[in-house]
Amino acid sequence: MRILIIGAGRVGSHVADLAVKLNCDVTIIDKDKVKVKKIGSLLDIDSILGDGTSSEILSNLPEKAIDIMLVATRDDITNITAIAVANTVLDIKKRVIRLKNRQFYQNEKLMKMLHIDRIIDIDLHVAKLIIDLMIIAPSANVIACFNRKGVIASIRVKNNNPYAMKKLKEINSVDFTIPLLYHLGNYEIANSESQIIPGDTAFIASSADKIDSILNDMLEDTGKIKTVSIVGGGRRGSYIAKYCVDNDISVKIIDRNPEVCDELSSQFPSAIVMLGSGSDIQLMKTEDLFLSDLFITTTDDDEMNILLSVLAKRIGVRKCITVAATEEYAYIASQLGLGSVVDPKFSSSTAILNLIMDKKAASISLLKGSKIGIIEKTVKSESPVINQLIEDIKFPSTSRIALILRRNDIIVPTGKEILIDGDQIIIFAPFNDMTKAAKLI
């Protein structure tokens, strides 16, 4: 599969890395010499220095047939222009565009004219991930599936965890399973002999209505959120504030942009909106932002997000959700035990994975550096596994079914279940086995 990416920033580079792991032929174009040189040295791809909106550059590509084109610069007009120009000189099957302005992506006529297949709004996706965490389990990293009926929660195992040092075959629970472990820098699809060791990260699959009680056994505090502080009142903060106001959660927001503060105050009269910088610790203390049940940092400054979350935890905030886009800072945040860490790049990963596999993917790569993906798929009447026991399905040895949604009931599989028409399933699989695992269903 041939993929063309315009923009070698965080999103474009992340998608290029993912596509290479999935054995795709990748070409990336960017005007920034440093970015092009860096990604060209890291990945086996064609990296081109130039303007992705230039018909000359696009028409001179050695391959005119493109399976997927992603335009992922930070500028909406540039992205729209690149797609429009590419449509005139290239043969493109699928188009993915990154947009921030809702006036563009809600313009159905424009999107249809450009033949857009997927729209990536990273700020909206980040806000939705944070809201999922607020709803399900703020003390853990979570991915919701089956329209929030199911959940995959990842937690770091502590010495006082009741399941520490146990093998999975010793945990006889119908409420949850642990399909994946992160141990000594490696992700491992778990089996009955896998042992839960303090310091590991355990990925827990369960139903959304049971995850709180499960995590209560493993974490110190998973109480209900009543008060929230948000650092960064831009688009991400605004989406989250709306959820809080609509659900009677008391919310405080701080932003250094007067226009943003005026807009938030007008839009959410019940919210407390403050003009100031998140780095103004005295203001944060004076206004009691560190006394909320949940402290959320949503800015584009990873370093400030992490430092503020560290300070909030030390002062006594119960829970933190930290946005961190760079791999180094996300790793630091996880090692510091800051709670949930949100990666803005996952929305682009899911969109591209859906198109590459032509399957419905719930998510991919739960943590940075992972080569493990998640496939969400519905069993059809013509499926080769219909009416088979799960333990009899010839899955790759490194793949595993983690959850089943049957009608409205979540089933934690033991291997003895028979798959029937209409079952929705979650499969954990390494990237190189994802297509094979998906085709079996």
Give your account of this protein's structure.
With 441 residues, this protein is α/β, with parallel strands linked by helices. The chain has 4 domains: 2-120, Rossmann fold (3-Layer(aba) Sandwich); 125-131 and 227-344, Rossmann fold, CATH 3.40.50.720; 142-218, Alpha-Beta Plaits (2-Layer Sandwich); 360-439, Alpha-Beta Plaits, CATH 3.30.70.1450. It is built from 15 helices and 22 strands. The chain has a 6-stranded parallel sheet, with helices on both faces. A hairpin with a 4-residue loop joins strand 7 and strand 8 (150-156). Helix 7 runs parallel beside helix 9 (235-246). The chain starts with a strand and ends with a helix.
Structure classification: alpha/beta
Instruction: Quickly give the CATH architecture of the largest domain.
Output: 3-Layer(aba) Sandwich
Shape: globular
The average pLDDT score comes to 87
Helix content: 25-40%
Instruction: Give the strand tally.
Output: 22
> How are strands sequenced across the largest beta sheet?
3-2-1-4-5-6
CATH overall fold name of the largest domain: Rossmann fold
What is the distance, rounded to the nearest whole angstrom, between the alpha carbons of the first and last residues? 22 Å
**Number of helical runs?**
15
* CATH hierarchy, class of the largest domain: Alpha Beta
Radius of gyration: 22 Å
The residue ranges in which pLDDT falls below 50 over 5 or more consecutive positions are none
Biggest pleated sheet: 6 strands, parallel
Number of domains: 4
Report the β-strand fraction as a percent range: 25-35%
The CATH superfamily of the largest domain is: NAD(P)-binding Rossmann-like Domain
